[in-house]
Amino acid sequence: MVKTLPSFLNKECTVADAGFNRWLVPPAALAIHLCIGMAYGFSVFWLPLSKAVGIKDSLVCGPEVHFFQELFITSCDWRISTLGWMYTLFFVFLGSSAALWGGWLEHVGPRKAAVISALCWCGGMLLSALGIYLHQFWIMLLGSGVIGGIGLGLGYISPVSTLIKWFPDRRGMATGMAIMGFGGGAMIGSPLATALMKHFATPNDVGVMQTFVVMACIYFVFMMSGALSYRIPAGDWKPKGWVPSIAKKNNGMITPHHVHVKNVFKIKQFWLLWGALCMNVSAGIGVIGMSSPMLQEVFGGQLIGVAKTYSELDKPQLTAIAAIAAGFTALLSLFNIGGRFFWASLSDFFGRKTTFIIFFVLGGLLYISIPSSANAGNKLFFVAAFCVILSMYGGGFSTAPAYLADLFGTQMVGAIHGRLLTAWATAGILGPVIVNYMRDYQLGLGLPREQVYNQTMMILAGLLMIGLICNLLIRPVAEKWFMAVDELATEKQHAREVVTEDEVHSLEDKRHTRNVKSTHPVTAWLAWVVVLMPLSWGVYKTLINATKFFT
Length: 551
Fold this sequence. Notes:
The structure is a single chain. Helix 8 packs across helix 14 and helix 13 packs antiparallel against helix 17 (454-472). The chain is an all-alpha fold and 551 residues long. Helices cover 69% and strands 0% of the residues.
């Protein structure tokens, strides 16, 4: 993909010394994921951008102006529905770039991939800032949607294989820590963007362009720091006291062999896991997009102690319940993030297959129970059910890489994970379409707003049952799909995980001429502080919003 980057980005230059502390790798991954996770929070820009020309109020385009004309028009404001296409492109290009370049990433290593991710994500934001300045939406789509989306895909999968190799004893926990960052990126980015837009706003400018520039610079520093901190373990490295044969004996679903990414589309276990993840994500992502209007329409005046349906509320009352719904959405985001670490870590003890069974069975029961709790006016159970559902939505993302490593081995797990993310791209279309169109269909039939989601919950529960069947059918991969010894050796050579005889002597000479020192424990603590400080600030801001739901 890129051959002209500096040599210190080469994979062989990132092999860790014997005394390297593996706990330095998760903070590096978090530094990347906390930045690209802002993709979830881009909706904070939609309302200000919809007033970029009119400033105080949107200068609405006439009905004769269609989508393709909005790409180039400068005399009126963009519709929010038009701006939403950037969000769609994020995840389309995330999945497609991860699938296309996952194999390349395995060969060049996580550092080079993460550097390119930083250039794409931050460069895309700068290009979008130019698009805002010129009021050309096609530049924004190219910048953040396409180029930024490619950065998302490379950044998302860059640490997966590395973390699994550093933590073969805790695969789920390791990937959970990193992918938790992707879920938490919006918690930091959204309030930061809001504060910056407020600071830069003037009577003649909504302040979004300047916000994009500042955030791109901040993210670039963070992402490059994380990328340059990546290290990969030596080929013969393993955690002290960990015996692979014991792990294999304790869990028959964990293979010591390796599947080549070129064969993965031919293996039924891959497609079964693809289906399981797609169903889990479809159900969860559909709810995320409609969580705020769903709570408002289902409970209406009950949220503020008024015995009225949603349609009977006046404007001040609607404003009041909208603030409560925003707190509900913030609460869901906390469970989405926490679930990524909790469920992935739990899968190290229960096994990946059992953990996915819990997702589907418990999730299905909760979806089925939601109409009853809504009809009974049981707000507490309604909210609790969605909080657990969203925790399992996030847990599916973070458990999937470890599931892949168990089934297909660790040699090319990053590339295989990239292929699996096409399930996410599919779910990103399927889930919202089901929820949104079912809502419109039910309203068209004349059903009250508080009842329009009942059938949708049953459909989402049905999706989880399909996912359950897919998961139950997963068995260990047949021996014929694993790489033979000579094929694996060739792949390791291609991936720079083995060295030639001359390089062996060269490396040995270098080791004799210098003392290999262990990483000082304070270094690891400082790395964690650097990434946990902004994450803690984001959690604090989210908790402040969540309290609106309880007050």
